[in-house]
Amino acid sequence: MQRFYVDTNCFITVWYIYYPPSVFASLWEQLVEKKDLIDIKNTFERIHILMKYGCLPYIMRYISYKESPYHGIYTQLARWCNQPSHFKRMSFEEFCIRNQDYAKSDKPCASMRALNLLKEDAPEVYEKYAACKFMYAGKKSQEEID
Question: Which Pfam families match (predicted)?
Answer without folding.
Answer: DUF4411 (PF14367)
